[in-house]
Predict the 3D structure of the following.
Amino acid sequence: MTHLACADEPEHPLNAEQLARFAQMRALWPGVRTSIGNSAGTLLDGAHRGDLGRPGIALYGGNPFASRPNPMEAVATLTAPILQIRDIAEPATVGYGATYVATPPARIAVVGIGYADGYPRNLGNVGTAAVRGRRVPVVGRVSMDLLTVDVGAVPQDEVHVGDAVELIGPTVGVDEVAAAAGTISYEILTGMGRRLVREYVEAD
């Protein structure tokens, strides 16, 4: 078994070098099955795959390549409920540190998820969420148990307390979330906390 160090960059010269070194070692045990490819390697070609591929991030819909379009569909979805909605009648600060000022006609929704659940704190004022497929900005700081989004652009009759807010999913991809947080999708997915309820849906 080997694990490709640069498979997310298919043209990287280390890929060929690593395969060559692995082939030298493999010659010592002729007939033994091999496992080479991670998600990116599995999608490249047979030489980068071996007899048994080991897809990882691709299973969750993440992009296995650093500079290619994502060939995968969204699989992992993270949602949280709206707990409160506040109509802003006059300018008001939102969240710890008053880092965001909401100005009318803003509508601020308080969402039941925070950094204790694995949603990165540094996505405050830079993250994006979605309500009924409409993208909305994360505003103010992400706190331990809550975050806030501005739903002013969503028609009032389409957003209610109890509605699910998409933090990761088909509208806001995990790679987009990771880029905004300055990290990689692997860290976002593995950082999801124990308090989150997991639901596993069988594909058709």
Notes: DSSP finds four helices and eight strands in the chain.
